[in-house]
Amino acid sequence: MTMRAPVTNLPIRFDDVSFIVRGVTIIDRIDIALAAGAPTVIIGPNGAGKTTLLRLAMGLIQPTTGRITWGGREDAPSDRRAIVFQRPVMLRRSVEANLRYALEAANAPSAERDTRIPELLAMVGLANLGGRPARKLSGGEQQRLAFARALARDPQVLFLDEPTASLDPASTKSIEDLIRDVAARGIKVVMSTHDLGEARRLAGDIVLMHRGRIVEASETTTFFSNPKTVEAARFIAGDLLV
Fold it and tell me: What residues form DSSP beta bridges with 160?
């Protein structure tokens, strides 16, 4: 399956971005650039702001203050960005029909849909399950179908919100293999995880968040071998950040 080549959504830049809900600061004056390349993995304790950062980067919510740009533009269309949530909702129809709906929503040419459905199912390891009700799939299979629906958008950037949370080790490995495959196709992956082992295995660079702020951001090997902040050292050691 071929992906459209030029990357126009990158870099994604946050310039002094805050997000405040009913007086509570969820994201606090963040500056970061998410560039093309290997996956960027966002880590941090529950409530650190990881999911909100992904939603802002996807364009699902708007910052309270500050500026976000995609490839230098504030008005970049979102059709080349996709997101997979931690608990994706399966439509009450077959696996294949879930994908067909996603392709229609992505305005894929009708002549291509019958070809792309088996390609996408094969890519995520669901080639023999097209006729099965999506809600009857296992948790890992549902997550792979959610990936296929996201890839139906032919994204340049794929956001993943704790994609292996609550999955068993075999399902986790299949999702991690899929993430590597997606990244190898030139799609920028930005994902959150609570699993430091997963971050080590997948990340090109690490972003540690705490209390809505970015505490540390660096290349993966440097982050784990030579953390620059007390918070990063404590988090790597397994201590709670409160």
Answer: 84, 191
CB contact burial 141-157 (16+ within 10 A = b; e otherwise): bbbbbbbbbbbbbbbbb
> Mind giving me the DSSP string for 62-85?
--SEEEEEETTBSS--GGGEEEE-
The CATH number for 12-89+155-236, chosen from 3.40.50.1240, 2.40.170.20, 3.40.50.300, 1.10.3380.30, is 3.40.50.300
pLDDT tens for each residue of 87-113: 899 999 999 999 999 999 999 998 889
Residue 207 in tokens: 């972003």
| C-alpha span between 155 and 12 (Å, rounded) | 14
**Side chain identity at 139, as an amino acid letter?**
G
If you average pLDDT over residues 172-184, what whole number do you get?
96
| Per-residue pLDDT at 6 | 54
> Can you say whether residue 113 is alpha, beta or left, with left for phi > 0 and alpha for psi between -120 and 50 degrees?
alpha
Domains of the chain, residue spans = 12-89+155-236
Give the model's pLDDT for residue 39.
98
- The string of pLDDT tens digits covering residues 106-140 is 999 988 899 999 999 999 999 999 999 999 999 99
Residue 124, SS3?
Answer: coil
CA gap 40, 91 in Å, rounded: 29
The whole-angstrom separation of Cα 82 and Cα 156 is: 8
Quote the pLDDT of residue 240.
82
Banded model confidence at residue 166, pLDDT cuts 50, 70, 90 = confident
